[in-house]
């Protein structure tokens, strides 16, 4: 079976969140989402979701830059490369520096297409080993401590196995203390999204270190592996790196420097399933727990996250949660649901395993473009 890619179709949709999601770098009320459709000469198609946000605050990419890079560079390079397998896409796109979210949206679509042509669920096609994944939740900054406690209570009642809260300077220790006072034994972690510095905030991190946290995620600047290594030596709580790890090389450097003990792997951040598998294989070899982080994905991105979370090494509950936590109506059918024990069953259908609701995508579309890969 060889791929014969005919065209790449791009759609931008706008999807309002059920409630605002706030982190240390901003507040999101709606998502502009780039949907990628890879179409084969057979007429079969695969879907990817580019997770680039609206502004360049998580990283340098935005939905607008991703659109430009995909249409003007990614698609033409694939046309010239004439890739025949999904595993060739990553290498073909290597000449493009950075822009990993743009590349990942296309690569994910090609992997979905290939799995469908092979007649297999994507998670099995990627080499997944478990048919059920453990789920945690990521809770954004809330208006009050009371609102945060209510949110945590609701998520625990829904069965989620791990609670992660967003923190930033001035909204950190008191939040963790309040949760620990109410829920002393739950699995709890915090995510700073690079909001702290080693020199200015060491005392705060040392206070957080007293609350039996599963991890402190990305406390310092994205590229600063040296200061993360210094910080890890100061505290007993494992540091988890997110923004700092965009490639296998970053994972290796972080491990060798002692910059972290856990890695959050995001499909878009690292550039696609091929790089995900390289990082998780390295992590398994060196005993580093990994888990799948979220980027406020709609259903297509969520389905890809389920698939990669079945890979070896994904031993901690990820941020793959139910569609209904974020959207009144998702763009896949059925929506992603979480069991009362906090798990998601890997789908049995071919490819991502969910039906894409084309009518809903059409209704939500605000722009579109098609790039033909064959003359």
How many individual domains?
2
Identify the strand order in the major beta sheet: 5-6-7-8-9-10-11
The CATH architecture assignment of the largest domain turns out to be: Alpha-Beta Barrel
Number of helices: 13
Write the layout of secondary structure elements.
Blueprint: E1 5-23, E2 26-40, E3 45-50, H1 63-81, H2 89-92, H3 100-118, H4 122-126, E4 132-134, E5 136-139, H5 145-157, E6 162-166, H6 173-182, E7 188-191, H7 198-208, E8 216-217, H8 225-234, E9 239-241, H9 248-257, E10 262-265, H10 267-270, H11 273-286, E11 290-292, H12 299-308, E12 332-333, E13 343-345, E14 355-356, H13 358-364, E15 365-372
Parallel strand pairs: 5-6, 6-7, 7-8, 8-9, 9-10, 10-11
Antiparallel strand pairs: 1-2, 1-15, 2-3, 4-13, 12-14
Which properties best describe this structure?
seven-stranded parallel beta sheet, four-stranded antiparallel beta sheet, 15 strands, TIM Barrel, alpha/beta, 375 residues
Protein architecture, described:
There is one protein chain. The protein has helices spanning 63-81, 89-92, 100-118, 122-126, 145-157, 173-182, 198-208, 225-234, 248-257, 267-270, 273-286, 299-308, 358-364, and strands at residues 5-23, 26-40, 45-50, 132-134, 136-139, 162-166, 188-191, 216-217, 239-241, 262-265, 290-292, 332-333, 343-345, 355-356, 365-372. Helices cover 36% and strands 22% of the residues. The longest helix is centred in the N-terminal third of the chain and has 19 residues, at 63-81. The protein has 2 domains: 5-119 and 357-372, 2-Layer Sandwich (Enolase-like, domain 1); 125-345, TIM Barrel (Alpha-Beta Barrel). The chain contains 13 helices and 15 strands. Strand 6 (162-166), helix 6 (173-182) and strand 7 (188-191) form a beta-alpha-beta unit. With 375 residues, it is an alpha/beta fold. 51% of the residues are buried.
């Amino acid at each position: 079976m060889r791929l014969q890619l005919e065209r790449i179709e791009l759609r931008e949709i706008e999807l309002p969140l059920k409630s605002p999601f706030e982190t240390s770098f901003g507040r999101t009320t709606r998502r502009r989402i780039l949907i990628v459709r890879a179409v084969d000469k057979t007429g079969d198609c695969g879907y990817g979701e580019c997770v680039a946000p609206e502004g360049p605050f998580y990283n340098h990419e935005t939905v607008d830059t991703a659109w430009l890079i995909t249409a003007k560079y990614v698609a033409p390079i694939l046309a010239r490369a004439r890739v025949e397998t999904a595993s060739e896409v990553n290498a073909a796109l290597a000449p493009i520096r950075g822009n990993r979210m743009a590349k990942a949206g296309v690569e994910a679509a090609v992997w979905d297409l290939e799995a469908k042509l092979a007649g297999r669920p994507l998670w099995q096609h990627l080499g997944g080993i478990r048919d059920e994944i453990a789920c945690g939740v990521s809770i954004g900054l809330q208006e009050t401590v009371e609102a945060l406690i209510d949110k945590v209570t609701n998520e625990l009642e829904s069965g989620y196995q791990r609670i992660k809260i967003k923190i930033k300077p001035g909204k950190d220790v008191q939040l963790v203390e309040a949760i620990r006072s109410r829920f002393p034994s739950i699995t709890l972690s915090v995510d700073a999204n690079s909001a702290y510095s080693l020199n200015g905030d060491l005392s705060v991190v040392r206070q957080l270190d007293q609350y039996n946290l599963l991890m402190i995620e990305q406390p310092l600047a994205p590229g600063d592996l040296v200061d993360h290594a210094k910080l890890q030596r100061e505290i007993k709580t494992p540091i988890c790196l997110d923004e700092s790890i965009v490639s296998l090389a970053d994972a290796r450097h972080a491990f060798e420097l002692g910059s972290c003990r856990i890695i959050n792997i995001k499909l878009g951040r690292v550039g696609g399933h091929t790089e995900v598998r390289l990082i998780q294989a390295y992590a398994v070899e060196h005993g580093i727990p990994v888990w799948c982080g979220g980027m406020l994905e709609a259903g297509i991105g969520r389905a890809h996250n389920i698939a990669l979370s079945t890979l070896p090494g994904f031993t901690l509950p990820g941020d793959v949660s139910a569609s209904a936590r974020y959207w009144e109506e998702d763009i896949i059918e059925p929506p992603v649901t979480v069991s009362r024990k906090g798990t998601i069953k890997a789908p049995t259908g071919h490819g991502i395993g969910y039906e894409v609701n084309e009518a809903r995508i059409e209704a939500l579309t605000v722009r579109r473009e098609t790039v033909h890969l064959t003359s």
